[in-house]
Amino acid sequence: MCRIGAIKSLNYVHPSRALQLMNSQQKGHDNSGFAVVMQDLGGVFKDYKEFPTISLACTDEGLKAAEAILDAIGFRQVFEWVPKTTRKPGMDIQALPNYVFRTFDYPENFKNASKREKEDLLTNTRLKIRTVMEPNEAGFVYSFWPDVVTLKEIGDPRDIGTFFGLWEADESFTAKVITTQCRQNTNYAIVRYAAHPFFLQGYTALANGENTFYQKNKEFQASLNPAYRGFESDSQCFLYTLHYMHRELGWPLNYYKHIITPLPFDEVQERPDRDQLFAIRQSLAHLEINGPNTIIGTLPDHTMFVCCDAKKLRPIVVGHTADTVVLSSEVCGINEILPERNWEQDIYPNEREIVVIGNNLEVQRWKQ
Amino acid sequence: METVKINDIACNDLPWKVVYDTERCTMCGSCVAACTFGAIKPKVERRRKAFSDTNTPEPKINFAATPVISQSNALNNYCRGCGVCERVCPNNAIRSERNPDSRFNVVYQSTTASGPKRGGRNNLEVQMRTLDTLRVGRISQMTDPSLDAQRHSFDCLAPLGRILPADKLPLTLMPGGELVQNGHTPPVRWIYPVIIGDMSIGALSWRMWEAVAMAVAYLNEECGLPVRMCSGEGGMPVRLLKSKYLKYMILQIASGHFGWNRIIKAMPHMVEDPAGVLIKIGQGAKPGDGGLLMAAKVASHIQAIRGVPKADLLSPPNHQGLYSIEESVQKMFLSFNAAFGFRVPVAIKTAASATSVSVFNNLVRDPYNIVGGYFIDGIDGGTGAAHDISLDHTGHPVVSKLRDCYLAAVAQGRQGQIPLWAAGGLGKTGNLAADAFKMFCLGANGVFSGKLILQIAGCVGNDNGRCNACNTGLCPAGITTQDPTLVRRLNPEKVAENLVNYFLGMDQELRKLMAPIGNSSLPVGRSDCLVSTNKEVADRLQVQYVC
Fold first, then answer.
1. Torsion sign over Cα B69, B70, B74, B79
2. For residues A271 and A311, is the Cβ–Cβ distance under 8 A?
3. Maximum distance among all alpha carbons in chain A?
4. pLDDT of A125-152, one tens digit each?
């Protein structure tokens, strides 16, 4: 089982907090990697919130290829942040030569383009770079989106933390929304893309668990959108379903749970909105998720939520203080970074609800 | 020595030989009375018997006229091996034995200028079934826990009806954040994923048909299993059409259009909509051949329901006047949808064949949103009567065809929009749950089964040529006959009880299969949880090969 965690705060938080959150939960296969998606960025990225940042790990050839594509499209670099890396002998990390976090201005001809057009441009560019780098593993492009930084690496999370200098908190590299996982996938081959969290067009998802409907989810999603690709991990399906429902269909978040874990037929029959629920269930039967899992997700407006499988087979805890909410698959993680909170107010989400954390940190529990 | 008439039919030419023991027989006559085919008859033989009536052996010979039971060597009274004689004999004096030296196929045709006809069983299937090379191989344990088949809840329902893609749903987002339906969607019924296959009221005896209908009503109303039954071609009793039980019935219109006059006349009086309408284009076990209801089975009530004289009734192999998918979609689906006010799903059934995928591809592109399902029937299915040659040599196994259709839908991102239902030899080994489950994993939304229903009722036929005389109207079990004497052999209450019990058991078995793979809803398309011990099967069906 994966250990997952997320932090949403009114203040900017350094990823060292995410490392601490995960460190107390280390066991088994968990220390095989570290991945983090940071949204609503602070520090050096604070002044560039409107501009997309590319998150890339690659070889020198990969970098050249990516630069060529970005140049050709007309992206103009406005900022670059280079993490200070430290290599010590004996470190358990399969580092790549380059970690690229560059912020760009949109091409000249997109100056007056709509938001949607710009977003499509970013996604298509990322997919293009990915396609070019994929054949000889020249690199991995995780996100290309405004106000988002993604970092994924294979190895011991402690060493990865040391390598990127993430243990010491500072003001330069922070975010208000951080989602994280300390593991590479175990059910398929280790690929950097496969580490949670997954990001697409402002949506983030990560999960602890198993998606036993992976095959049918994947077969269905693959034809829904060209950006639904990879499928290196069964949990990517959670992201694509979220994206499809919320962005493509334009349905509100409360229907996510109805798609992935539909209510039993006899319960639907009792509901006033049964017609809609039946219609949703039958049309999106292939997006249903079976199996044990807890899903943490973030929407483009930074709303964070968590929900569980229909039988509540995997754990998750939500702990909060006045200015921070922390989600963790084990309560020890929250104890580590929010020791002063009132643990009696911790929430253990149940199988038929979505727990939603708004931007003012109000925690709501929505019944399915 | 008598002159040998070599061309006469001898018992040794027939598929079954009756083995009879004079010593054990008490001449009670039960076997002769019970044999519906007239394959045995009493006769008197002159028997020579040596005996001695003194203390020291002094054999004498006595000739006496002895009554015996003998096998008929007439072609229209040949023994079907049903074994009813053995069942009724109190002394174990008689039984039938398969005759490996039978010349039946040759002599029958040579004598009658016609091929043999029989009840629907493919008798050449001797190799292992495809489904039996498959196992449910993904057993969840540590990472994805299995469920408790007894404790957890499961959603064992399948759709019947056209399903719209999500972006075509008539849903409007209200200011309160709720989706509200603001338009018509095609009717969809969520029903039990195992339908009782289409067997007509002419093919089955009225007691048998009533028993099945009774079992279906009981399963729905007392057991909470929404099992549906397909009427088969040939209409229904008017009382049933006007009753509330119609909602458990899928009305079939086949190529003969039998019984539809009555159905249409009953429409204004219907208090419930039927569960669906199934347009049968072809049947797996006899594609290209119509069903045969021999005159012997066209009893007066069948004549009344179908509006026909007492004559051999052939359902033509295809709907006369429908020569393309477009035509069938436009004419029939529209008219039947319209007839029931667009409230009843209308599905289509064809035989599995090399062209099934083309048919399915045409259906999934249905622009009218009215194709409510695609039923495919394979060669191993079929309960109806047909020519030997059709049953044994035409048709297509269903498993790979179903898989092809599902994968064709996947390739277009349209899986689930036209529910796939498959049949043809499912439950042949008596275990329908396992077969159904594997079919779901390969992409079927549901399955249907007919022959197994007959087995549950007490049919003694099998796939090795035993009985299979459904066409003759002489069914020794009273299942496929309209002869009042024979029908009385069947106890409808007992048949209904058997059926209900079988379905309850099967339902439990389905859960027993869903639990280990950690699924609480039907595993449609979960080919990843199947493995095959046969490399060719694994490659063909795109499932994991294990050895």
1. positive
2. no
3. 64
4. 999 999 999 988 899 999 999 999 999 9
Q: Which of A37-51, A84-98, A116-130, A240-254 has the lowest mean pLDDT?
A: A84-98
The minimum CA-CA distance between A325 and chain B, rounded to whole Å, is 25
On whether any CB of chain A is under 8 Å from the CB of B547, the answer is no
Q: Which residues pair with A151 in a beta bridge?
A: A36
Cα distances (Å, whole numbers) of residue B192 to A191, A281, B167, B226, B231: 42, 16, 27, 5, 16
Q: Which DSSP helix (H) or strand (E) runs through A126? A: helix A115-133
Chain B residues within an 8 Å CB radius of A279:
164, 169, 171, 181, 185
* B517/A212 Cβ within 8 A: yes
- Cβ within 8 Å of B, A 4-23: none
**Are B167 and A249 an interchain contact pair (Cβ–Cβ within 8 Å)?**
yes
- A280 — contact with chain B (CB < 8 Å)? yes
Q: A190: pLDDT confidence band, cut at 50, 70 and 90?
A: confident
Residue B344 has pLDDT above 60, yes or no: yes
Tally of residues, chain A: 368
Closest CA to A121 of A102, A101, A135, A107: A107
Q: What's the pTM value of the predicted model, to 2 decimals?
A: 0.94
Does B1 have pLDDT greater than 70? no
Residues in A closer than 8 angstroms to B169, CB to CB, are 279-280, 283
Give the mutation candidate from B143, B157, B188, B531 for the A interface (greatest A CB count, under 10 A).
B143
B478-509 pLDDT, tens digit per residue, is 999 999 999 999 999 999 999 999 999 999 99
